[in-house]
Write a structure and sequence with these properties.
Largest sheet: 7 strands, mixed
Helix content: 25-40%
Number of helices: 17
CATH class of the largest domain: Alpha Beta
Strand order of the largest sheet: 10-11-12-2-13-24-14
CATH architecture of the largest domain: 3-Layer(aba) Sandwich
CATH topology of the largest domain: D-Maltodextrin-Binding Protein, domain 2
Structural class: alpha+beta
Shape: globular
Number of strands: 28
Low-confidence stretches: 1-59
Distance between the termini: 43 Å
Radius of gyration: 24 Å
C-alpha cells in the first residue's frame, strides 16, 4: 500500500522499519551458498557469472497463458507495488540478487556469492558478469545501488529537510515505495567496490536481510527509469529476466515476451539460456469458477486459486494437476483500529468477546470451501516460531461472547447492543471483490448473532485505499505470505503505524521484543520472543486470526518445469515448457 496519496504531489510520510525475513542467520546462509558454489566448481561446472558450459535451452515457441486470481494495484514497478499479483509477473522481468527456494536455503541469482561481516552490518555481493538489461545497458553494481537507493529516497529527503518544514516529493521523479521498503530492512547505503562488487551497509544487525532480497527487490535498469520516468516505467518495467515486458491491457492481461539474449544464472534452474515460450500471457480472471473453467477448457495452462467446488474434478482429470502447498507468513486476520476514540473496539472486553464470536471452521467452509486451515495465531503454522499454545486461547463460544458484552455494559436494544445510547456498530470498508465480500458477509452474520452491527462498505480500490490512509475504519483485513516471523514487526510495531500496523497498536514492550527478535541470530532466542509476542497480542485481542492459507494452484499436466517458490506465492518460469 502507498502511505501517501497517489497523483499530484506526494507529501512525505513517516516511513517505518519492518520487513520480510528468514529463519536462519545470514552468515549461515552465506556459508551454505558458498559451499554450493564451490561444490559446483569441483564437479567441473563453472561458478555462476563466470564462463560456463550452458545447458541446451528448450525449443523456443508457443504461448503459456496463466490465470491470475486478481488485478494489479495500478503498478508494474516491483519497488512501487504492494500486490503479489504484480510480482508474479515482474519477477520474470526484473530478477533479484538471490532466490529462496526453501525455508533454510538461499541460492545465487544476479549475485554469484556474498559475505557477511562478523557484526552483521555489511553484506558484500559479487555480481554476475556479462548480464545486460532488456534495453541493452549493462547490469552492474551501480544498478543494484540505484535499485536499493530509490526505495529509501523518500526517507532521505525527510532526513535532510529543514527543521519545521514538511518536505514534498514530486511523484514524477521520487518513488513512493511499497512492500520493497519492508523487505530492504534497515538499509543505510550501498558502496560500489567495482563494477561487479557491491557492499551493502545496514544501520543495525538484521538477520532476515537476505530473504528480503526477493521479488519486490528485482533489479531495475537505471537508464530505463531515468529516460522513461516513473510513470512510464511503472507501465513497462525493464530488467534482466528471461522475459521482457510486452503489453498491458488494464483489467485484462499483461503479455511478456521471450528474452532471446538471456543467459540464465541461478543454479536452481536447469535452463541456462533463453526460456522456452515465445510469450507468457497473464490473464486477470477474478472469478474462481471462471478461472478454473479456462483451465479445464484449455484456454489457460496454469491458474492460481482453483475454485474449491471444482477441486476434486480437477484432481480426477488425468490431463490436469493440482499444485498444493501451505504457506508461511500471516494468514487472513482481522485487525481492530485502536485509534478510533470513543468507538466500541477500543474496549478490550469488546474485542475479546468478538474473538469468541467467530466459528472459524464454518468460516473456512463458507469462504474457502474448506481448503484452508482455521487460524489461531497471526502467524501461520508453517512459519518458524509459530506458537501452538495460541490454539487454546479462543474457541467458538457465542454464549460466552454475549455474556462478556453484558458484563461490559453493552446490552441488547432490539437486535443490536448499545451502551449509553451508543450502538455497538463497527465500520469496515473493503475492496469490492468476491473474496473480500464473502469474508465480511460471514463476519457480519457472526457478529450480528451476539448483537454487534458490522457495517461493510464495498468500495473501488482507490476509494478503499483513501479510507484506510485516512484511518476511517474500525476493523480491517490483512494477509501476508512471508518467509519469517518478522512479519509481526510489520503488523504490530508502533513504527509501522500508518503503514501495515492497521490496528494502530502501540506497545513499547512488544516493540522491544520485535526489535530484539529481528536482530538476533539465535533461533531459540527468536522463537521465545515470537512466542511471547503472539500470545500477548492475542490476549489483548488486537487481532482475530481467521484462516491459514493453503495454495491450490492447478495446471495442465503437459506444462513442466515451473517452480512454485517457498512462499507458495510466486511461480518461477525459467524452466517452464510444454512436454513433447
Amino acid at each position: 500500500m502507498a502511505a501517501a496519496g497517489e497523483g499530484g504531489r506526494v507529501v512525505l510520510p513517516k516511513r517505518t522499519v519492518s520487513r520480510r525475513a528468514f529463519v536462519a542467520g545470514s552468515a549461515g546462509v552465506a556459508a551454505l551458498a558458498a559451499t554450493r558454489l564451490d561444490a559446483m566448481a569441483a564437479a567441473g561446472g563453472a561458478r555462476p557469472g563466470s564462463a560456463r558450459l550452458l545447458r541446451p535451452a528448450a525449443q523456443a515457441g508457443g504461448t503459456l497463458t496463466y490465470g491470475l486470481s486478481g488485478d494489479f494495484d495500478e503498478k508494474l514497478d516491483p519497488q512501487g507495488t504492494n500486490f503479489d499479483t504484480t510480482i508474479r509477473v515482474t519477477l520474470n522481468i526484473c530478477e533479484p540478487l538471490v532466490w529462496m527456494p526453501a525455508a533454510t536455503e538461499i541460492v545465487p541469482n544476479l549475485a554469484d556469492s556474498w559475505e557477511v561481516s562478523p557484526d552483521g552490518l555489511v553484506y558484500t555481493f559479487r555480481l554476475r558478469q556479462g548480464v545486460t538489461f532488456h534495453d541493452g545497458t549493462p547490469f552492474n553494481a551501480a544498478a543494484v545501488q540505484f535499485t536499493f537507493d530509490r526505495v529509501v529516497e523518500l526517507d532521505r529527503l525527510t532526513a535532510t529537510a529543514a527543521p519545521g518544514t514538511t518536505p514534498v516529493a514530486d511523484p514524477a521523479t521520487v518513488l513512493t515505495p511499497g512492500q520493497s521498503y519492508n523487505q530492504l530492512g534497515p538499509y543505510e547505503r550501498s558502496e560500489i567496490v567495482d563494477d561487479h562488487t557491491i557492499r551493502v551497509v545496514l544501520s543495525r544487525p538484521f538477520t532476515p536481510f537476505l530473504s528480503g532480497l526477493n521479488g519486490y527487490l528485482g533489479i531495475v535498469s537505471p537508464t530505463a527509469v531515468r529516460t522513461m520516468g516513473l510513470a512510464e516505467f511503472n507501465r513497462a518495467p525493464v530488467g534482466t529476466g528471461p522475459y521482457m515486458f510486452g503489453e498491458w491491457v488494464e483489467q485484462d492481461h499483461v503479455t511478456l515476451l521471450r528474452n532471446p539474449n538471456y543467459v540464465g544464472g541461478s543454479p536452481v534452474f536447469t535452463t541456462q539460456g533463453p526460456p522456452a515460450f515465445d510469450e507468457i500471457i497473464y490473464r486477470i480472471i477474478p472469478d474462481a469458477a471462471v478461472r478454473s473453467g479456462t483451465l479445464i477448457s484449455g484456454e489457460t495452462q496454469y491458474i492460481e486459486e482453483i475454485d474449491p467446488l471444482q477441486l476434486e474434478d480437477v484432481r480426477a482429470n488425468p490431463d490436469l494437476e493440482v499444485v498444493e502447498r501451505p504457506q508461511p507468513g500471516s494468514g487472513w486476520i482481522l485487525l481492530f483500529n485502536l485509534a478510533r476514540e470513543d468507538k466500541p473496539q477500543t474496549e478490550p472486553a469488546v474485542r475479546q468477546a468478538l474473538s469468541f464470536a467467530v466459528d472459524k471452521e464454518a468460516f473456512n467452509q463458507a469462504v474457502f470451501g474448506g481448503t484452508n486451515v482455521p487460524a489461531a495465531s497471526p502467524l501461520m503454522r508453517p512459519t518458524f516460531g509459530y506458537e501452538p499454545r495460541t490454539e487454546g486461547l479462543y474457541s467458538y463460544d457465542p454464549e460466552r461472547a454475549a455474556s462478556m458484552l453484558d458484563a461490559a455494559g453493552w446490552v441488547l436494544n432490539g437486535d443490536i447492543r448499545e451502551k449509553n445510547g451508543q450502538p455497538l456498530a463497527l465500520v469496515q470498508p473493503i475492496i469490492d471483490r468476491p473474496q473480500d465480500n464473502a469474508m465480511t458477509t460471514f463476519l457480519q452474520g457472526s457478529f450480528r448473532e451476539i448483537g454487534v452491527d458490522l457495517q461493510v462498505e464495498p468500495l473501488e480500490l482507490a476509494a478503499a485505499r483513501e479510507r484506510r490512509i485516512a484511518g476511517l475504519y474500525d476493523v480491517g483485513m490483512l494477509w501476508f505470505s512471508y518467509a519469517d516471523p518478522d512479519i509481526l514487526r510489520a503488523i504490530f510495531h508502533s513504527e509501522n503505524i500508518g503503514a501495515y500496523n492497521r490496528a494502530n497498536y502501540s506497545n513499547p514492550e512488544i516493540d522491544r521484543m520485535l526489535d530484539e527478535a529481528a536482530a538476533s541470530s539465535d533461533p531459540e532466542v527468536r522463537a521465545q520472543l515470537y512466542s511471547q509476542i503472539q500470545l500477548r497480542v492475542l490476549e489483548e485481542a488486537v487481532t482475530i486470526p481467521l484462516a491459514d492459507s493453503v495454495v491450490y494452484n492447478a495446471k495442465q499436466r503437459r506444462l513442466q518445469g515451473e517452480i512454485l517458490d517457498y512462499l507458495a506465492s510466486y511461480v518461477w518460469m525459467n524452466d517452464a515448457r510444454f512436454a513433447e
